[in-house]
Amino acid sequence: MGQGLDNLSQEQRRHQDLLASLAYALRSFTNLGRFLELVPLVTSRLVGSQGALLVVFHEDGRLWRDHLQAFPADRWAGGLRQLAALPDSELGVWSGDPSGVADLDQRVGRLLGDGQVLGDGQLLATSVVARSSQRGRLYVFAPRGELPWNEVQSLHLQLVADLAGVALEGDTLRQALQRHERVDRQLGMGAEIQAELLPNRCPLIEGVTVAARCRSAFEVGGDYYDFIPTQPQGSGPGLAAARWALVIGDVMGKGVPAGLLMALLRGLLRAEVLSGHAPDRILHDLNQLAQEDLAHSHRFVTLFYSDFDPRTRLLRYANAGHHPPLIWRRGTGQVERLDVPGVVIGLQPGADYDTGQTLLEPGDVLLYFTDGVTEALGFRGERFEEHRLINQFQMVCHGDLGAQEILDLLFARLDRFVGADRQLDDDASLMVLKVGDQQVLASLPS
């Protein structure tokens, strides 16, 4: 009696040690394949079988051939090769339904039985489950004539299968984390690109003050604005009195690709501005130059281009599918939209654009913006929309405020609409030009 109890105690300790070793491997493994190699070995020793086989599937149901594991490996090598050679179409998509389970069990029984289906009592199997979905089967095999499987053996088999399921889930989460880290690195690179392309100071232009800001969202967007002197040589009063190009645009899409396309367009546009052409010609040429690159990337660009002559206060402009800027007229107290027809850059080769023009009077205020402003979501789920922007713009312009103050107030009202603790879903950019304000060299916040 005492000898039997000692033997039972030793067997229990051996089982505990085997399970503890597998649990330790699960806590410390960095290679899924190495861990899954242990599963048939530990299972076979726990259950006391002649061999064990682990069959796992990808999340999409395809047989995971790299992780077919068996013990002893040389005994089942031929069966594994036959199983791995089966096409996914013949295996069917693994769904864990009873008919699919029975079919898989029959195939495995035939492979392990050297072409003969294993008889009752020779094959014991259980499912490997990860995130409530079946990801495979774990089998143990005994030769004909062995005693039937008992409850303890079935429990041990299920424990090992559950640990294998945890390993599969952990590997899935690890891969997802790596993908997120790669995306985060890309977004960081895109943010750096975007920050380098946007001007860090507003220019000093005779007779007007200018302020601009891009409020970045979590994701990197394609917002772009720029101030480009048409006479880059020289500085001081001569440059301040020269004609300036004022541009705002948005590359459709986010991330590093959008930032790189923005860099490309910025270089092309700055070169075009030096030609001295009218706005419609500049957009036409820019569309032609960028056509091939944009077509390959399957992206488009909206762009509003304008140039301002401080000596005449004449503003000329052309639009490539961007939101038209708003102008508040001090003489009437009303807001107008500056718009002319034109398709987005990169959509249509050889597209033509129109040039509009307007005379800015002292006290007039011009507002450029991107769709991140008008499409910002409030805490009630509604969008900010252009009509709300017009109302807020009209209200702040009635006060005797400078361009920077108007810009700050508009962003403050946008933040109040979105909610103090909520982040914008897309980059939001505003650029304000006011005629007749005192000349101040304003800094752009980082």
Structure description:
The protein is of the alpha+beta class and 446 residues long. It folds into two domains: 2-176, Beta-Lactamase; 198-435, Phosphatase 2c, domain 1. Helices cover 44% and strands 20% of the residues. The protein has helices spanning 2-28, 32-47, 73-85, 88-91, 98-112, 151-197, 237-240, 255-273, 279-297, 371-374, 385-397, 403-418, and strands at 51-56, 69-71, 123-130, 133-141, 208-215, 223-229, 244-251, 301-309, 314-320, 326-329, 334-337, 356-359, 365-369, 428-435. The strands form three sheets. It has a five-stranded antiparallel sheet with strand order 5-14-13-10-11. The chain has a five-stranded antiparallel sheet with strand order 6-7-8-9-12, with helices on one face. A hairpin with a 2-residue loop joins strand 3 (123-130) and strand 4. Helix 1 runs antiparallel to helix 2, helix 1 (2-28) packs parallel to helix 6 (151-197) and helix 8 (255-273) runs antiparallel to helix 9 (279-297). It is elongated and about 100 Å long. Mean pLDDT is 83; it is low at 438-443.
In short:
The chain is of the alpha+beta class. The protein is built from 12 helices and 14 strands. Helix 1 (2-28) packs parallel to helix 6, helix 2 (32-47) packs antiparallel against helix 6 and helix 11 (385-397) crosses helix 12 (403-418).
